[in-house]
Design a protein that fits this description.
single chain; 588 residues; BirA Bifunctional Protein, domain 2; YbaK protein; nine-stranded mixed β-sheet; globular; RNA-binding
Length: 588
Amino acid sequence: MLRMSTLFLRTLREDPSDAEVPSHRLLVRAGYVRRAAPGGFTWLPLGWLVYRNVENIIRDEMDKAGFQEVHFPALLPREPYEATGRWTEYGPNLFRLKDRRDNDFLLAPTHEEMFTLLVRDLFSSYKDLPLSIYQIQTKYRDEARPRAGLLRGREFVMKDSYSFDLNDDGLRESYRRHREAYISTFDRLRLPYVIVSAMSGAMGGSASEEFLAPLDVGEDTFVRCTSCGYAANTEAVSVAAPAPSTATTPPARVVDTPGTPTIDSLVAFLNRSEELARPEGTWDAADTLKNVALMLVYPDGTRSPLVIGLPGNREVDMKRLEAQVGPAEPMPFTEEDFARFPMLVKGYIGPQMLGEQSASQIRYLVDPRVVDGTSWVTGANSAGAHVVGLTAGRDFTPDGTIEAAEVLEGDTCPSCSAAMTIARGIEIGHIFQLGRKYAEALDLQVLDGDGKQVTVTMGSYGIGVSRAVAVIAESHHDELGLVWPREVAPADVHLIIAGKEGGPQRSAAEQIAVELDNRGIRVLFDDREGVSPGVRFKDAELIGVPTIVVVGRGLDDGLIEVKDRATGERRDVALNEVVSHLVDICVL
RNA sequence: CGGGGUGUAGCGCAGCUUGGUUAGCGCGCCACGUUCGGGACGUGGAGGUCGGAGGUUCGAAUCCUCUCACCCCGACCA
């Protein structure tokens, strides 16, 4: 039983000024967490109870699925991460530090290397596989900008699992089992989620899906098809490319277009020009081919220019681009870059002189919509001039295509051609088929039945544990406070005394509290003295325990009020029945 | 990384423009009394390196420089 008279808790009457998102605001105000460092939080008793409930549900589902728990240090040496290339590829988000002897260490963001090495140390036969092991561990990422409280910290707790299989079929099966375990975990946690196709990003590997909680505060954007169920992170969306056209287009010609360095100004110019008027209607931004110059910066510091051609009505989506060019980081072209590559005329870049085979040798990739036979208005590589009718395949040949154009609401679904919708979400789980990247780099092999060495294939599977607490809060609250699902709530019953001090309410409440406690019901008992009923009600609503029990004026008639925090529904229950009534409610 | 904003008691804020008693208010906290079903009331208290460092000045919360932290926006278009 938790007695509020002695509980280490202080609720705040006002919102903390630095908290923006509801989960952060309410978790601080209701006394669950306190900020302790940039991107780091202290769990107070109530918060830690919720955290442990969440952790235990995750652990329970992992164990049920037959995965085994281990525990690694968070502080790790550089060498294994050097061997897989992640020491450099992970970039500035990796927490690096040195010990007193000047040796490099890191605070692990994930543990692929260590799990791989551990299995290599202990196992060497196909008979040992398949194997799935996991840990629940504090992870570190040196986020440029921690924000939104627990949702994106620099220190957070993650459950990460790794599967080890002899072949691709085994990997698919391990992946499927993790996917099932994640579904039952998130269902039990009462977390809303959408499973979307994802990019594997810095982890490497092939197939990968994310579990996204669809919330506006999320920092991921995903699309969903309105008809076929296709869902994908925008980073992973592949554009439905039209079929190449073989129709003959008019020859390309250069026209003077003074003062048209932007797509808007160009389109306006085209529509003012009588000479360029089109029988089929007005010019649109989608008729233009926009060429965006970017500088790719590789982890080793080398830089190489890249020009991306895409329909003028779309912007380059930097997140999508990063997912394509990683580990290189794309940077916008600076004035110095333009000075260094004088053939790129800012505002008038055209594909005629681009491509690795061209004089400029600048790599030129286009959006998949720019297929052979499509005709464009685009830059003429000279200030104040554009080319009309420049046709892909005939007048220019890009080095390839790239998925970097922004995805727009209503874009066609790549699997069924219906329209797609866009929403925001926050990643609560991610499952990957890693393949052999880590096993190869760290030489994890086993003997197969024929006595041959075979490289093991791996999967990796993560759940943000501390983030899950925040996401549950984010999706389970109202204007009065938190509304915990019972599975993760810090208590089942919040028991309030609402009567005259020294009246019969206190002893009745005391008795109910003890009986509930004896029946195994988790009770948060507001036994504070000298606290007005209003404060007790407000605190109960803020703290968000699912069932609120009020011992108050009804006691004279032998009645106790039982209130559901989520629905607000209240009913009076006879004093001698209230305990068994509550047991019925609370035992799931 | 860039732009903007904010740092004054546990929380929310005023004071700063125009330097000058002992730095204020509300909430919370402590004591006593009253009150007791919706963040009660009275009286009396405790609590501050004014984010930090340096400077200007007879004198700095206030002016200047640097720095740290937090919040928001942008990460970008040709």
